[in-house]
Amino acid sequence: MPLVLEKRAERSAFIAIASPLLAIALTLLTMSILLLALGKNPLAALYVYFVEPLTDPYTLMEIAVKASPIVMIAIGLSLCYLANVWNIGAEGQFLMGAVTGSYLAVVTNGSDVGHWLVIVMLILGAIGGALWALIPAICRVRFGANEILTSLMLVYVADLIMDYLVRGPWRDPKGLNFPTTAAFDPSATVPVILDGGRLHAGVIITLAVVVIAAVLLGRTIKGFEIRVVGAAPRAARFAGFKSDRLVIFTFLISGALAGLAGIIEVAGPVGVLQPGISPGYGFTAIIVAFLGRLNPLGILIAGLFLALTFIGGEGAQISMKIPLDLTKVFQGVLLFYVLACDSLILYRIRLIGSQQKTA
Amino acid sequence: MSDQGSASHSARAPLLQAIGITKRYGSFLANDDVSIDLYPGEIHALLGENGAGKSTLVKAMYGLIQPSAGELRWLGEKIELTGPADARARGIAMVFQHFSLFDNLTVAENVALGLDGSESFAAMSARLAQVSRDYGLPLDPKREVWRLSVGERQRIEIVRALMQNPKLLILDEPTAVLTPQEADQLFTVLERLKSEGRALLYISHKLDEVKRLCDTATILRGGKKVATCNPRAETAASMARMMVGADIGEVKATTARAVTVPRLLIRDLSLEPDDPHGTYLRNVGVEVFGGEILGLAGVAGNGQDELFAALSGERPCANEDDVIIDGHAAGHLSVTQRRKLGAAFVPEERLGHGTAPRMKLSENALLTGHAASRMVKHGFVDRPATLKAVDATTATFDVRKAKRDPEAASLSGGNLQKFIVGREILREPGVLVVSQPTWGVDAGAAAVIRQALLDLSGRGSAVLVISQDLDELLEISDRIAVMFHGALSEPVARADATREKLGLLMGGASPESAKEASHALGA
Q: How far does the CA of residue B312 sit from the closest CA of chain A (Å)?
């Protein structure tokens, strides 16, 4: 009795919401099997992963701090993906934003210039990320170069540029030769908004970005343009929308958001520019964008969930000696199931043969 | 006539019998207990509107799908076709409406790809030349397909089928892409195949053709067989009633129509194609007046798509004054700017070009309405306004749908086409360019759309209708011009536009020779 995928007449609104939940359930099942194979008690491990971090105000704040850059990047990426523009290089744009924004902090280090400094740094960071994203956008529009490859390759270039700066010209003279800049002055730091943790003003900016993106996509003609170009390119041209201009636009926005996330991370929780400021936020954001259905509110929820796995993974490593890499396995498996379950929105699974008996 | 037909039936056994064929897709019955007998030496018409189940039935006969219930009998013996190869092995061949040819390969290479490869390429080429000569279907085996006209491409498909020496040949709407003269040539070939004792199944919705060519007709409606009749004993109107299930209203032009100034001017428009197998537009020039419908005839692929893109602004023209809309040079303007000048466009493809299939109707109203219909305020979409546009279109053009604002793809072809045409007409455009307005649309919806086009021109708009359906153009146009190889003929007034004359123009004759020829035909 073979299974067939049958096209639905109309997309299923129920499955559109249920599919990520189904994907999460399947992921948990797979993880339990893996944990069993590692000789761990899956229930205990999953408790450490997903429940324990929610029981303590400090880890709750840490989840928000962790989710903030991921969500901000994922919002920008979702605009790209909705328009069928495949920006895979958010990690590089994140790093370049961190670098360009840090420039001011490095050159003004030690001279207290006032609190406007951090604001200018954030603006510079966004510009740096946007300009870095402009390179693959222009290559695609002018030369037809595949933006997946160019944007991805630029990640490694950005990484090396940052590496050179913190080992060379920007290295802290008093830093015992460690590859890092001097710690940022208080005027070059994103302020903490709650005592007893690291919850910083960047989280509020992320929330604002989520709201603005929701309005942009749902209410404005620009958001409509983004969705039509992605969903039906020929109809979009007939509507008078120019896809080349939209490639530039979405790359600029997503680059700016990734860059902003980068400089907030450096000027906030980290406090210095150094290698390893990102545990792959730019790539995790790709998962979050799809897990959140390319929908701003969905991305916010998905980002918090992924942040939970990061925090929970650290806890599990400490208390149960579960390798941290399992967190990455978890995220990969999750993306796999999300994409698989998504096909159920447009298709339904049917057993053929059962129909004939009823006929 | 009908007595003779039944006499021959009793004398001979049917070649292929389909008995109680039922095909179910989900809850939808594409074929519901359809039975049909095909006799050797007979041309059997399969008639029905789009969606009546014709394609499903022949696909079952050609082994492309397995029926959910019912059986096929070949020479009285029950068979189960495992696939098209199985059908071909038994002697069933099919010529599809949409050709499966590789543009960059030669005629012979294309034919070789469809055969089993048991003979050498040289021998096959020789046989190809032989068959095409024998049946009066001239073809050069060494020519690449992209150099050929649509009629010639169809010849490849027919010759490929004949090289298998079939006992049954199925043809799916073969004249849809032909000029009247090419169709006549095809009928001669089909008559000859019939006289050789082959069975032919001829799918069509052109009733005049069926009356002229076919010995028997089976009529399908909504997946069910309505009747099997002798088309020569029926009238076109009686068969149309059986196909549609109701009388079709005739369209009427408004009586007092004032033809005013030219509102759409195309001046010496030349344009390179943007894909390698496209058509060059060569010095296309014509004026469309307010208050008239100008019909643009021509076999598909003669530059109609390129002209539509140049008129809509999807492709910019070379010169600013190549296209003039209501006095404004529009050749360099974008689609949106042309819409703001009061122009509206309806492309041929409903899904993916005229609409975004997976978006709601209100969003598809916004697709063309964002330019000039006050649906956008300060960059924000006025959603109530888009919904109002959907409601207005629904009410005026009787768009049937399951809910107020469904996805475009969930509508039937006819209802979606009514929505797309209605969406543009309700904007009261000064200039409307519409391509294939009733392609694949049921007769009722087609009548609504044609009437709407007539009414719009009656209110003073200039309407340009690009269509391959000559009957449609003769029904609604005031003047008709013909496109051939990217060039446009002088328009002919409807009163002078005979099918013969238009057919000759569609085949590339100059207007003068077409005039002489039609005089000669008339004499």
A: 8
In this predicted model, what pLDDT tens digit does every residue of B181-212 receive, in sequence order?
A: 888 889 999 999 999 999 999 998 788 889 99
Tell me what pLDDT residue B256 has. Answer: 58
Q: Is the pLDDT of residue A153 over 50?
A: yes
Residue that the structure tokens 């007449």 belong to: A9
DSSP string, A232-292: -HHHHHHHT--HHHHHHHHHHHHHHHHHHHHHHHIIIII-S--TTS-SSHHHHHHHHHHHT
Q: Please tell me the distance from the alpha carbon of residue A299 to that of residue A210, in angstroms, as a whole number.
A: 8
- Joined together, the tokens standing for residue A249 give 């636009």
pLDDT digits (tens, 9 = 90+) for A129-150: 999 999 999 999 999 999 999 9
Find chain A residues with C-beta within 8 A of B343's C-beta: none
Closest Cα in chain A, distance from residue B313 (Å): 8
Does the distance separating the beta carbons of A6 and B26 come in below 8 Å? yes
Q: What residues in chain A have their Cβ under 8 A from chain B's Cβ atoms?
A: 6, 9-11, 219-222, 224, 227-228, 231-232, 234-240, 355-356, 359
d(CA A334, CA A26) in angstroms, rounded, equals 8
CA distance B232 to B83: 35
Find the closest chain B residue to A224 by CA distance. Answer: B363
The DSSP annotation for B460-510 comes to T-EEEEE-S-HHHHHHH-SEEEEEETTEEPPPEEGGG--HHHHHHHHTT--
pLDDT, mean of residues A191-213:
92
pLDDT at site A276 = 87
ipTM of the complex: 0.83
Q: Where are the beta strands (DSSP E) in B108-147?
A: none
* Contact (Cβ atoms closer than 8 angstroms) between residue B69 and residue B22: yes
Chain B nearest-CA distance from A240, in A, is: 5
Q: Considering only A227-236, A342-351, B32-41, B264-273, which range has the smallest mean pLDDT?
A: A342-351
Domain ranges in chain B with CATH number 3.40.50.300:
1-85+206-247, 262-350+429-522
Half-sphere exposure of A97 (CA within 13 A, CB side): 37
Residue A191 · residue A201 · CB < 8 Å: yes
> What φ, ψ does residue B487 adopt, rounded to 5°?
-110, 155
Is the Cβ–Cβ distance between B340 and B330 less than 8 Å? Answer: no
Give the torsion sign (CA, B350, B352, B357, B359): negative
Question: What would the mean pLDDT of A12-37 be, rounded to a whole number?
Answer: 86
What is B322-339 written as a DSSP string?
A: GEEETTEE-TT--HHHHH
**Long-range contact pairs involving B441-445 (C-beta distance under 8 Å, separation at least 24):** B441/B50, B441/B413, B441/B414, B441/B417, B442/B49, B442/B50, B442/B51, B442/B244, B442/B412, B442/B413, B442/B414, B443/B49, B443/B240, B443/B243, B443/B244, B443/B248, B444/B244, B444/B246, B444/B248, B444/B414, B445/B414, B445/B415, B445/B417, B445/B418
pLDDT mean for each 10 residues of chain B (523 residues): 45 87 83 93 89 87 91 92 89 86 89 81 90 87 85 88 92 84 89 94 86 92 90 86 74 68 93 83 94 91 92 93 94 95 94 93 95 88 94 92 88 89 95 91 85 93 92 92 92 89 82 56 43
Structural domain B1-85+206-247, CATH architecture: 3-Layer(aba) Sandwich (3.40)
Give the whole-angstrom CA distance, residue A292 versus residue A21: 11
Half-sphere CA count of A145, side-chain side, radius 13 A: 15
The CATH code of the domain at B262-350+429-522 is 3.40.50.300
Distance CA B523, CA A56 (A): 100
Q: Strand B281-289 relative to strand B42-47: parallel, antiparallel, unpaired?
A: unpaired
Q: How far apart are CA A46 and CA A315, in angstroms?
A: 11
Phi, psi (5° rounding) for residue B482? Answer: -120, 135
